[in-house]
Amino acid sequence: MSYKKVTDLLPEDLLELIQKYVEGECIYIPIKNENKKKWGTNTGTKKVIKDRDVNIYIKIFYLA
Questions:
Q1: Cβ-contact 38, 46 below 8 angstroms
Q2: From CA 7, how far away is CA 4, in angstroms rounded?
Q3: CB of 49 within 8 A of CB of 40?
Q4: Residue 1: inside a domain, yes or no?
Q5: pLDDT at 19
């Protein structure tokens, strides 16, 4: 996650509205549910763990 300068992103009237609620603080704006990706999609971690688990299963049940 990187920081962005709000004055480069939002119109001035929206910034003023936000400043009524929070000023001089860092806030996090979450991703909408419909835009979320499943865990491990970007990094490939999910596949790595799945492959590891399959190898463990094979060693336990077929090579024991």
A1: yes
A2: 9
A3: yes
A4: no
A5: 94
